[in-house]
């Protein structure tokens, strides 16, 4: 290896180590790890959402919203699909609305 290649590898290694150290200090937050702070588990939120609209969950996400951290659960009930938001601390339903268009489908022309 020539001297410039070795120098480039050294710079890349130092930059990677600095990024890892910065992330470890809390400089960069991983949203997936924030679920450890939720007072109720995902399973309980899904059960609550299913019971609320009398259906079966097809998708669930943990996300930060205007109401704080919530579980956003998509529930199928009959021929309808509902978006149910469950409070991650209290386990109560914050909102429930019929989903008119599947916003997760990239190929849907209605989105």
Architecture (CATH level 2) name of the largest domain: Roll
- The order of strands across the largest sheet is 1-2-3-4
Helix/strand order: HHEEEE
Helix fraction bin: 25-40%
The third-level CATH topology of the largest domain is Nuclear Transport Factor 2, Chain: A
Kindly name the structural category.
alpha+beta
Low-pLDDT segments, ≥5 res: 4-13, 15-22
Number of domains: 2
CATH class of the largest domain: Alpha Beta
What layout of secondary structure does this protein have?
Elements: H1 3-24, H2 42-53, E1 56-65, E2 68-77, E3 80-87, E4 93-98
Antiparallel strand pairs: 1-2, 2-3, 3-4
Overview of the structural elements:
With about 110 residues, the protein is an alpha+beta fold. It folds into two domains: about 1-35; about 40-100, Nuclear Transport Factor 2, Chain: A. The protein contains two helices and four strands; from the N terminus they run ααββββ. The chain has helices spanning about 5-25, 40-55; strands spanning about 55-65, 70-75, 80-85, 95-100. A four-stranded antiparallel sheet has the order 1-2-3-4, with helices on one face. The longest helix is centred in the N-terminal third of the chain and has 22 residues, at about 5-25.
